[in-house]
Every structure is written in C-alpha cells, then in structure tokens.
Design goal:
The chain is of the alpha/beta class. The chain has ten helices and five strands, in the order E-H-H-H-H-H-H-E-H-E-H-E-H-E-H. Helix 7 links the parallel strand 2 and strand 3.
C-alpha cells in the first residue's frame, strides 16, 4: 500500500535498480538454473562458483564501506579470499553478474515501471538511478532511460549504501534540493537509511504488490496529484 503522497513540488525521483525496477527473485531463479547447467558438467571449474559466491558475500558484508577505488576493491576481496588473480575474478564476475543476466531483465521488470518513468518525464520531473552495482548496461537491457545514472563504484562516489554519497552526488549534479526529491528502493536497511542519511524522502517498494500494480498505482497517484 502506498501510504504517502509524493513530496510537494517534486522535481526529482531517484530509483534503486536491483529489486526495485525488476523482480530480483525471478531473475535469481533463472540464473540459478543457468549457472547449474553450465558448471554441473564442468566440476573442475568449481572455483568460479566460489568466486561468484564470495564476490556477492563480501559486497554485502561491506555495507557502508568507503575507499579510494571501490571499483577495483570489489574484485580484490574475492581474489584474496580464493588466492586468484584479480583479472580472473573480473572475467568470471563480468560474465555471470554483469553480462549474462542482462538478457533476462526485461522479462523480470515490474509492470508499470516504464510507464511511471515516462509519466514523471511528461510531468517535468527529472529521473535518476543510484545502485550499489554498475547498472548502465542493465538499464539499456530494460530499455529504461533516465537523466542521470550513478553507482557506488563510480570514482565520484566510492562508497556503498547506506552512506549517502551517491544520492548527494545526484542532488549536486542535478542542482535539486533534497526536499524536492524522492528515493525509491526495495531495502530499507540500505536504500531507506541511505535516503535518511542524505535527508531525502524515501518510498519503500512493496514487494507483495510490485509484481502486480505497485508502479501502476504510483502513476495513478502522480496523475491525480497533478490535477490538484
């Protein structure tokens, strides 16, 4: 249920990506079968499976982490854990995390996402994305266009949520006040706290209604508000 209206004089909506614009559980089921079908007949490549596991685990464990080169560090953590070369870790992760899943994102999108973004655009409201993962190729695969794309591994950010650096960069670049902005995400412990730390209003995606009509209802509310 969407309990609150949009902030008054809304000028910017920032979206998280994974789990916010598409159904992450659906994608994970698809990728589970893809990975199993690939590695089951190739048991000698078991270390690649561990690479995927530790890459994700270390990133989750380091919520709120900040450094001078997060783009490289995210690969280094798994490399050190498994005694692998960082280039080998990059090869595996780029394939299974940043490339292959993109082909299935469009089919996993929540209904009404594209329509809501278009409704924002036609209402003169700017849009942006802020994700802990680089999402530029994901957005292309989903055929989603926004005014600004920022990720935690960008050099200008270099910190994971719930630190607010990414949101603050967006507000600064777009020259929009935080009170006229809204951050939409699916995880309060990361997205919600990130918004709170930045002083930006937050809307939590309802995962029970998102596969049906969450974003469709947002579009309807925006239309209703525009008429008032």
């Amino acid at each position: 249920m969407i309990r609150n209206m949009f902030p008054k004089d809304l000028k910017l909506v920032v979206f998280d990506v994974d789990g916010t614009l598409y159904q992450q559980s659906k994608l994970r089921k698809i990728m589970f079968f893809k990975i199993v079908s690939y590695y089951l007949p190739r048991p000698w490549l078991y270390k690649e499976l561990l690479t995927i596991f530790y890459f994700r685990k270390e990133r989750e464990r380091k919520a709120g982490y900040s450094t001078v080169n997060l783009q490289e560090d995210q690969y280094l953590w798994a490399a050190e854990k498994l005694g692998m070369k960082i280039d080998e870790v990059k090869r595996v992760i780029d394939k299974w995390i940043f490339s292959i899943p993109n082909a299935f994102l469009k089919s996993c999108m929540y209904p009404g996402v594209s329509e809501f973004i278009e409704k924002l655009r036609s209402s003169g409201i700017k849009t942006a994305t802020y994700s802990d993962y680089d999402s530029r190729e994901k957005l292309k695969s989903m055929q989603i266009g926004v005014d600004l794309e920022i990720s935690s591994t960008d050099q200008i950010v270099n910190s994971f949520k719930p630190l607010p650096a990414g949101l603050l960069v967006i507000l600064s670049k777009m020259k929009i006040d935080k009170k006229n902005s809204l951050y939409i995400g699916d995880r309060f412990e990361l997205d919600g706290l990130c918004a709170k730390n930045a002083g930006v209003p937050f809307l939590l995606v309802d995962k029970n209604t998102a596969p049906k009509n969450f974003f469709l209802k947002l579009s309807a509310k925006l239309s209703s508000q525009n008429k008032n």
